[in-house]
Amino acid sequence: MSYIASKGYKYPLTPLTRQLREELYTQPYASIDFTSHRNSISPTDNYHPKTMVLNMINFGLVKIWNPLLRTNFIRRKAEAWAFELIEREDENTDFANLGPVNTTMNILACYIHDGPDSYAVKRHRQRMHDFLWMKDEGMLMNGTNGVQTWDTSFLIQAVVEAGEAEEARSRPMLLKALEFLDDQQIREDCREQQVCYRQRRKGSWAFSTREQGYVVSDCTSEAMKSVILLQHLPGYPELVSNQRLKDAVDTLLTMQNRSGGFASYEPTRGSHYLEYLNAAEVFGRIMIEYDYPECTTAVVTALSLFTSKHDPEYRKDEIKETISKAVSWILKAQRADGSWYGSWGICFTYAGMFALESLASVGRNHSNDDKVALACKFFLDRQMDDGGWGESYKSCSSGVYTHHEKSQVVQTCWVIIALLEAQCPERERIEKAVKMVMSRQLEDGSWEQEAIEGVFNKSCMISYPNYKFIFPIKALGMFAKRFGNPKV
Question: At what angle do helices 409-421 and 370-380 cross, to 10 degrees?
Fold first, then answer.
């Protein structure tokens, strides 16, 4: 965006762009004084208002730096460096980029720099199809180029937890899923990764595909867990070698923050005071990476599984110390009411599931840990009359647990999983939740899509359509395994 703004590029007007100008604005385009609207924003969208510090800096840039102090030499040098970073991003992601926001910016920058017929522009156009899709609401755009690795990993774990992985009917599907994770592991680091500010990624998995190329701590953890679980079952081949699993561990060990927690894409690299320069308005907590319960807990469960089930000797002291620090952070992040605030799913329900799973992986449960018992109480106190749980997306922005008007299958399954992991003794309460989930199953075995499940940056909600299959399978399977598959 800075490159495009510095270039001052304007596409020649056409009948189409003239028509769009009239459609997009509430007054004639020629009458708009855009400079006077620099800070105009709907109150509904103004989730993170610009700070006085940022407004003062913007004033200095607009009124003093750009017109009076910025020389052509400085401008050309800055543009060259900005475009080199754009090219590095395209190279490291095969033009998929981190997401559609910088993809659209990058294609425009390449259009300006290289021309409309360049390879970069053509390849960007091809990759745009990764994001765009049609449904009854019209053309929509994904937040990333998919959730392939994420969903595949969770599905494998669900089937394994349900005790179905060794059944003949499940084996072909799971073998293909294992082959997919084998193919999608990132095998090399970015070229000169320090130059383009990238985190080590060798051995990791991305949120979507290998081509997208961004290591994510919890995606790597969930994929590694899934690979270990399958490859240690009879009849499944070792597609991901021991060395490649060690590479995944090596990358995870580079991602822990000094606090003991884990962020998503990289360790925290700056102060939270940088939020004073947050110009996004619609998003909070975006200027640096933060510790997240979901990411921290995923790493704990992955490293615990690696040590207990796969290779107990590899970097055992470092892994032990990492887990210990992470567990301390998880316990510290727990609120006084027993909950954890979730940043990637809605919200306290989602984070609580991950937290109790990770604590269970290190031997903490309802009977031996007061904090686990308190977390169970938090959930039980919010169970709805029909036995389920339902949490509104409003919890994410308010930071306070907010009931949905109706219980939700996916969130109910998250709580069932959490209570089972914690060895909560309230079987009747859990069974009531299981009955609710079963009562909503459709004749074809699926469940209806209910309220939205995901979130990022507190105010942007994301739909995960496969969650309504994955988590009921896991929750029901875990319940059956725990209680001997009783009739409910």
Answer: 150
